[in-house]
Amino acid sequence: MRRTRNSRSARLRFAALATALALGAALGACSPGAPSAPSPGTSGDEADPQDGAASPAPLPSGELVSASPDDLRLGVAVAGGGHHLETGLGSGTALADETYASLVAENFTSLSPENQLKWEWLRPERETFDFAAADELVAFAQEHGLAVRGHTLFWHSQNPAWLTSGELDDDELREVLREHVETVVGRYAGQIEQWDVANEIFEDQARLRTRDNPFLGRFGVEIVADVFRWAHEADPEALLFLNDYAIESIGPKSDAYFELVQELLADGVPVHGMGFQGHLSMKYPKPGDMRENLERFAELGLEVAVTEADVRMAVEDGVASPEDLAAQAGYYEVMLDACLEVDSCRSFTVWGLSDAFSWVPFFFAGEGAATLLDEEYRVKPAYVALVDRLATGR
Ligand code: G3I
Prior knowledge:
The protein is of the alpha/beta class and 394 residues long. The protein has one domain (8-391): Glycosidases (TIM Barrel, Alpha-Beta Barrel). It contains 14 helices and ten strands. The chain has an eight-stranded parallel β-barrel with strand order 1-2-3-4-5-6-8-9, surrounded by five helices. Strand 7, helix 11 and strand 8 form a beta-alpha-beta unit. Ligand G3I binds next to loops.
């Protein structure tokens, strides 16, 4: 086991980290997009001339993992594909950069491919599977002793045109889905610990997403049970999750999942977990009842997980205020706290290593700074808050 739980050295490192962070934050060192920022992938170790003589906030060096309870996976989505296609990454992943790769390997115990297991990546053509990018990520995880969360088998987004064009009849569509699930889950059997089997199957108003999910539109909710059964047959050891955003609190959308999952369990469908993505915005209050919400799913015998945590805020020219960065810590803390207080929450994943690769600015104009590290991989108050919360244990 790579972790040393709450070790003295971790505490000392943390104290030094907190002091350095306070200095750095006071001087605005955490502002993403600072004019003198080196491009992502450079070491970020050099003092920023804008900071005068003061030390910038440090890069993380394993504090999260050191402070974490042994039964909690700390995960990160590895940048690549999706919105990164139009940036410097092209079709590769950020792991090509040594600094990025070592930060992932040293600071997390699990990774999620951000895009490479989605249909548009694996199934560019109906007859062709392309596992090259996903294989690389899984190999990296194995080399560094990280678990993998698989994301995702059944979703309304990032599907290839041949699948969504409507050219397949019902039998063909069902067969293509069965083949996809069995092939993909089977390929990574024993290597992918948890799968987000069905992703975002309810709209924001808790209506089943029949309008834009090609499978739900054709077959209704019954197809969800089939997908779980096929996945389970392909890898009986993998933990199989439903997963969605905007379900952190108790409300119509999380209630819809609560009802559906009870029906699935009553029918003997192999559903093992409920994933709460955790894409929060500081425009809205913190999810005050997240622990209770996770608890009610746990009481059904499910694992629960925070699967895609990030916290976005208003930015000006990409720069967040020190006050907002400090307040952001509280949002992350609420999510980690809920997870730590529920025994069957064994996985806490953040959606992106640093602001250099976050999806947020591409989707929300004027918002950003959503991850734990700034664009130069320096820690933000949220990172320190999570280390602190982890150190207090479950
Ligand atoms: O497919 C279109 C293409 O036709 C068009 O030419 C191109 C022009 O920009 O865009 C393409 O879509 C991109 C898509 O990935 C597919 O490659 C989007 O711009 C791009 O923004 C998108 O990004 C990914 C997003 O999922 C898609 O919804 C992000 O990289 C990825 O981080 C994000 O991850 C999701 C999780 O999977 C599920 N939960 C929410 C989370 C954040 O949105």
